[in-house]
């Protein structure tokens, strides 16, 4: 079994993404940050590597997707409450993110989503305990 996950995402402007995600409450590991990459800490063992498109391209022989035009990944984070989901989406929209659908309430699960400045989709959910 894996002990950590690193999601690698191409970004057009590393600094803009650091500012955006800092406003959403995330922090970054300075040891894994340079002019072409930064390591966003999502959880104790969950990280997103925000790589400039040029750096990202060095990891793959395939073309790098433009997330504003295609969907290459859906990142889904489980949060502690419905209010936390709503709050993060509101902060994302206030910092230049966008939304593409209405929140969904399925009873056992509440969810909403936003796209970051590079178009990557971040789904947020709150799961309720079974009755």
Key features?
2,3-Dihydroxybiphenyl 1,2-Dioxygenase, domain 1; 8 strands; 2 domains; single chain; alpha/beta; four-stranded mixed sheet; 131 residues; 3 helices
Give your account of this protein's structure.
The protein has 131 residues and is of the alpha/beta class. It folds into 2 domains: 1-60, 2,3-Dihydroxybiphenyl 1,2-Dioxygenase, domain 1 (Roll), CATH 3.10.180.10; 73-131, Roll (2,3-Dihydroxybiphenyl 1,2-Dioxygenase, domain 1). The chain contains 3 helices and 8 strands; from the N terminus they run E-H-E-E-E-H-E-H-E-E-E. The chain has helices at residues 14-23, 53-57, 82-94; strands at residues 5-11, 27-34, 37-43, 46-52, 74-78, 104-105, 109-115, 121-127. Strands 1-4-3-2 form a 4-stranded mixed beta sheet. A 4-stranded mixed beta sheet has the order 5-8-7-6, with helices on one face. The mean pLDDT is 94.
SSE blueprint and pairings:
Elements: E1 5-11, H1 14-23, E2 27-34, E3 37-43, E4 46-52, H2 53-57, E5 74-78, H3 82-94, E6 104-105, E7 109-115, E8 121-127
- Helix content class: 10-25%
Mean pLDDT reading: 94
| Biggest sheet features | 4 strands, mixed
Main structural class: alpha/beta
The amount of beta strand, in percent, is 35-45%
Span between termini: 31 Å
- Number of structurally distinct domains: 2
CATH homology-level superfamily of the largest domain: 2,3-Dihydroxybiphenyl 1,2-Dioxygenase, domain 1
**CATH class type of the largest domain:** Alpha Beta
Spatial ordering of strands, largest sheet: 1-4-3-2
CATH structural fold name of the largest domain: 2,3-Dihydroxybiphenyl 1,2-Dioxygenase, domain 1
CATH arch. level architecture of the largest domain: Roll
- Total strand count, please? 8
What characteristic shape results from the CA principal axes?
globular
Number of helices: 3
Order of helices and strands: EHEEEHEHEEE
Radius of gyration, taken over Cα atoms and rounded to an integer in Å: 15 Å
Low-confidence stretches: none
């Amino acid at each position: 079994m894996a002990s950590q996950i690193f999601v690698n995402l191409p970004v057009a402007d590393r600094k803009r993404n650091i500012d955006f995600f800092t406003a959403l409450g995330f922090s970054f590991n300075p040891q894994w940050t340079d002019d072409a990459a930064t390591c966003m800490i999502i959880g104790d063992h969950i990280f997103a590597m925000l790589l400039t498109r040029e750096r990202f391209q060095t990891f793959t022989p395939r073309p790098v997707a433009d997330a504003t035009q295609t969907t290459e990944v859906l990142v889904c984070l489980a949060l502690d409450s419905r209010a936390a989901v709503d709050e993060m989406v509101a902060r994302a929209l206030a910092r230049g993110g966008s939304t593409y659908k209405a929140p969904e309430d399925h009873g056992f699960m509440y969810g909403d989503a936003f796209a970051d400045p590079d178009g990557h989709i971040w789904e947020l959910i709150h799961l309720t305990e079974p009755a």
